Amino acid sequence: MKFYIGTFWKFNPKNQELTFSDGKVVTLPSRLNLCLETLIEAHGHTVSYDELLLKVWGTVHRDSSTITSVISELRKAISNGRNDVRLIQTVPKKGYRFVGEISQVEENVDPKANTPHTDFTIASQKDFNQSFPFEPPSPNLSNTSETQENTGSSLLNPNLQSSKPQSEQVNNVAISRKPAGRHGDSVFSKWYFYALILTIFSVSASYFGVERLGNADVSEIGIKKYSNAEILTFERGLELEFDISSDGKWLVYTHQNVANRQKHIIARNLLHGTQYQLPSEVGVDHRSPNFSRDAGRIVYILDNSEECEVWIMDFNNGFVRESAKKVSECGLSGLWTTPKFSVDGNKIYFSRSEALSEPFQIILHDLTTSYERSYSAPTSDGRGDYAFSISPDGNHMAIVRNLHWGATNILIKNNSSGDMVSLVQFPYLIEHVTWMNDDELIYKNEDGQLVKHHVYTDQKSVISESTLPLSYPVVSEGRVFAYRGFISNSDILKLSNLDQDKVTVTDVVTTLYADYNPMTAQNSGLFFLSNRSGKLQIWERVQDSVRTAWDSKLPPQIQKLQYSDKHQAFFGISNNRIFKLSLQSKEMTWLGQAEKEVVHNIRLSRNEDYLYFATVKDENWSLQQMDLVSEQMEPLGINGFVVMDSVDGYLFTRFRTRGLWKFDITTGQESLLIKDFESYSSVMWDVLQDQIIWASGDTVHRYSISQNIRYESVKLDGNIRNIHCSEKLEGCLVDVFGSGESEIIELR
């Protein structure tokens, strides 16, 4: 085992421990541990920013303020509170280097011995103790009492992975394990590589029987903004749903593992760094934790392969695991929902959906009587009410309602009268909303910044200045928290030999950026959307060369961009209207009858003469087509959600109804083709010659129309968000989304 001996401490990178001369042991978070090891192994040479990012985060595409925060925290940890100790030197515009005296030690273990035997090849344990400038203290009464206190805490929380201080005896030196302190402030720097968070879907914000209070316009006059941040989490991977205790002392959050994507819950004390983990069993995820107002309990979601369950557990300076119990079920597993306690702690709220075709409803569960009732009644035109937040006084609930599977409506419900009004609508999705106080809400905008919205005056203002996107705001005692970063990145892959048992999968575009929405062009070229330039643009790849194909600003919130070789143009939907981007004239034009026709789910016909799309009125969906030369629209005479043409008719889906239908243009008859077809989005299925190709999660399904058979499914490494099939390519292109990186911060 490898150790490093410094002037003031011994560093064990495998165990992530610093043992100081006074006997104290500090357990380093993973990123601090990797950072220190990287600097030491450079042997006094400068480690560049990119080298550190690649080693610690596995990517060079991160905000430089992230490195600054980690280095600041690492300096605190290795100095042990001494202001005169400077072991890490900043090399301006280059990086950092370790300047302290250090020697490497190898510990050999004798496999024949009954107990491990330590034999340092460079320095003995005695040399290690003598290398400190003063003698280590002997065990004393305070160490003994600390041991008893920590043992009791361990009994309270059995079987938990914890960094709670524990005393142990090593070579007659009492070592008390104490975690690092709170994280230091850092300033956001300009971030050159990524655009702000991508929004895949864009559909209308419609009115559904509720009064409208405002719109999404934001005023920023005279508003003081949060421009600094304190990083609170350092694990590699994703930090997702989280909560802060009402006293501001504890952070509880969902962490998704990089390797196996499993989710578990971590609790961290924000005052002295004590950290507990609630581990998940194989095939089970723990997520979406929330505190009760007194921080004495947490409510969370347990997901397995079959269903979603709501659990509660006592919390007493850590998880009291033996108190965990299931209180209800929330429907399908893997869907976004966050449970919360009522203000008095006697009830819990959560969202439930039993099927993709069933919208989320908020459920109120009484913990005393186990009585449940529906607390919201969303329309069937969307995913329903999947997120919510209760005002500090408990009088109102802010509800996030999904419309048309892509737009968001924030509603305010009076918990006494049951009255509900619409506060704001916008054509993109948000994960969460929170109350700043009893009068103001905070949510994210389409640029990944936080917006404060006064419920009664309708005044809105952007309150953050972050070069990385922010999401999931949480407020505790006036302090604002959020998670920062990208939830996912994406690659473009090609699937070929789709009519054979073994499908060939090849990489087409694989970078650390979000590259998606592939479109084939003539001469085997490829267009796609990407944020690699720092903003969302259309890119073109021809052979091994990649360049921008459209330099002008794109319309906001693009939904399913299509490319036509015949018209040398792109077609898409923005704010529920069809637009055209001409590569010849370099101009953008709107098609159709301005705002009168609200459209969804466009598809280009096989001969590229028409665009197919859906319109909705009073929750009734109908399919139409537009002639791309005359721009005239006409109905297809089919009630459906997504349509594309086939050799002798149309293939289409119906809104919220499982199945794929065929419409015969000769007979005018409809017939059910695939009964268990469940792919409602226009970007999730396509036709290649005789085959229908569709995706669900990480799986590609194949069906032969003429032979009426299904081929074996194909699993990919990541969730599929887009399928585009082309006879030119003799295959299909898919964009596959994988996990990104995020961290929980407090805004300053």
Describe the structure.
The chain is mostly beta strands and about 750 residues long. Helices cover about 10% and strands about 45% of the residues. It is built from five helices and 61 strands. A hairpin with a 5-residue loop joins β16 and β17 (about 250-255). α1 crosses α3. The chain is globular and about 90 Å long.
Summarize the structure.
This protein has 748 residues and is mainly β.
Radius of gyration: 29 Å
Shape annotation: globular
- Note the main sheet: 7 strands, antiparallel
The helix tally amounts to 5
Oligomer state equals single chain
Number of strands: 61
CATH level-1 class of the largest domain:
Mainly Beta
Keywords:
8% helix; Neuraminidase; Arc Repressor Mutant, subunit A; 5 helices; seven-stranded antiparallel β-sheet
List the helices and strands and how they pair.
Elements: E1 2-6, E2 9-12, E3 17-20, E4 25-27, H1 30-41, E5 47-48, H2 49-56, H3 64-79, E6 88-91, E7 95-98, E8 102-108, E9 119-120, H4 125-130, H5 141-156, E10 161-162, E11 167-170, E12 173-176, E13 185-187, E14 211-212, E15 228-231, E16 238-244, E17 250-256, E18 263-269, E19 275-278, E20 285-291, E21 297-303, E22 308-315, E23 319-331, E24 340-341, E25 347-352, E26 361-366, E27 372-374, E28 384-390, E29 396-403, E30 407-414, E31 420-426, E32 434-435, E33 440-444, E34 450-454, E35 460-462, E36 470-476, E37 479-496, E38 504-509, E39 515-520, E40 526-530, E41 537-542, E42 545-550, E43 558-564, E44 569-574, E45 577-582, E46 588-591, E47 600-604, E48 610-617, E49 620-627, E50 633-638, E51 642-646, E52 649-654, E53 657-664, E54 670-674, E55 685-688, E56 691-696, E57 699-704, E58 709-710, E59 714-715, E60 719-726, E61 731-747
Parallel strand pairs: 14-31
Antiparallel strand pairs: 1-2, 1-8, 2-3, 3-4, 5-7, 6-7, 8-9, 10-19, 11-12, 13-15, 15-61, 16-17, 17-18, 18-19, 20-21, 21-22, 22-23, 24-25, 25-26, 26-27, 28-29, 29-30, 30-31, 32-33, 33-34, 34-35, 36-37, 37-38, 37-61, 39-40, 40-41, 41-42, 43-44, 44-45, 45-46, 47-48, 48-49, 49-50, 51-52, 52-53, ...
